[in-house]
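User: Can you predict the 3D structure for this chain?
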Amino acid sequence: MLNLITNSKKSMKRKILQTLLLGMAVFLSGTASAQTQVSGIVRSSDGEVLPGVTVVIKNTSNGVLSNVEGRYSINLPNPQAVLVFSFVGMQTQEIKVNGRTEINVTMESLTIGVDEVVVTALGISREKKSLGYSVAEVKGESLQRVTQENVLNSLAGKVAGVNISSTGIPGSSVSMVIRGASSLTSDNQPLFVVDGIPMNNTLNNITQMGRDNRVDYGNAISDLNPENIESVSVLKGPSAAALYGSRAGNGVVLITTKAGKQKKGLGITVTSNTVFESPYKYLPKHHMFANGNRPYTQDNRPNNGLPYMVIDPSTSGWVGPELDKGIMAYQWPYFDANGDLTATPLVSHRDNYKNFFEMGYTTDNAVSITDATEKIDYRISYSNMQNKGVIPNSDLHKHSISLNSSLKLNDRIRVSSSINFTTSGADNRPAGNRGANPMQALYELNSHIDVRSLKNYWEEDKVGLWQNAPYQLEMNSDGTYSKGDYINNPYFIANEVNNGFKRDRVYGHAKLDWKLTQELAFQLRYTHDQFHEFRDTKIAPSYTNEPNGFYGLTNLYRREQNADFLFSYDKNLGDFNLSVSAGGNYMYQYASNNTTKAKDGGSGLIIPGIYSVSNIAPSNIQY
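Assistant: Here is the predicted structure, written as structure tokens:
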């Protein structure tokens, strides 16, 4: 009997243990599923791959775009999530994952109803079938599925015949070209009109301060908050731009912002999005040879009077002694802790790119309050955006406040207005070309040097005066050593070549709509757009192209005012409809650009580290 009880207890223990193991297996399975990644290829019905398809996890703002090969890859919160595939001109598809890791999708063409109403020039609504030119419209909700700090990036892949390109750096200029270039001398940007307010988006914001320090401060449309957009209409035909004159020769992008009349009663909306970013792909780089012009070994090296060869990190030759072969050499920083010249093995550091770049992020927070009655409606919103770039010491921030309101005086007269204020800026915008671009300094760094050894970018006894940079070791006739040519330390470039800016922008409108008769309507509108921007560039001594340091500042101001009126006559003539519009416009523009700086490559600053115009020698100031 005792044996039976003992065996029974053992059996129960075994069952309990099996149950616990099964529970752990289920738990581990659930944990693993939280990391589920789904990938695949998106094609059209004729088998062509589709780049730019938006793939979003349903009921979230998490999503990705398919690449040029139609491929996508997305991480899921659970294996039963639903993916939403959308693309301009295609039917939106919702597909349940059901634990799969590969989902290939074929998208079908979308048939659009002929009675679709779109916003055309000067804010007039028309049925698409009545227009003599091409109009593409994108609703605001499709722009807000995946957070982008620039509305043009959100439009990528959503409008046929439109090419959108940028450097990919948050806050950088974004170029939009509608159906090919129309000019060989201009940037071919369309005219942007926001609630009737013309906003010039020309790519003239790339300026140089200091030799080889060209910086992209972004263009005008980046001041627009994507969360406030109701719809975007792209007018493609030449007649579509007739009401805006020659400045609309490259097309018109009409942006309508949200208003309180969308929903009766009081409404409050709060949104928050955070996007993390890291480099997707690095520039190709070899890890086989140290700097040099010949793949020397210890046996066939040139005689330099020393036991080992010396590696010059400043040379442009990249075919020196082989790395990771046990070859000894004198390489930067050359000397040990006691100050003795010491040979060390030549090894490759293959993660220099990965070790230099940081995890970047962009956080958007927004709150809006709307209210609407029979006579009055309004919408007030506030948003802020904070960005930390993948390049060390790069950032961007933006705050926006907007108010849209409308008052119905009677059945025939309505007045409306909007006011928008945006302040944006950065402590440092990295240069985008050669020279002062940290990525060039990183690319020029040979693999035999560990980038992590450069994080302390000042020489210990010359802080603020000279960067800790790989240099050529020169041997003097008296047996001593000195420093020769050097290359820029990428951390020095990132932290001590600073391009800051602050931009304040105000734009808005006031409008009167008066229905004079059943067929005749009158519209009177005033629009105002102005911004003031301050930029300053600070370059510390020992930058190779400005060895004595540099300081410069720029003040930009631009204002545009428009006043226009429009009479619209619409008459139904049975099988025909007669529409006639007549109006006029008065436009005033003013712009100023004042720059004060040290001469490029000149004598630099009188006292290193003090960034002020008064610290530049009078003979070296350039206006």
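The longest strand covers residues 550-573. The first helix runs from residue 2 to 33.
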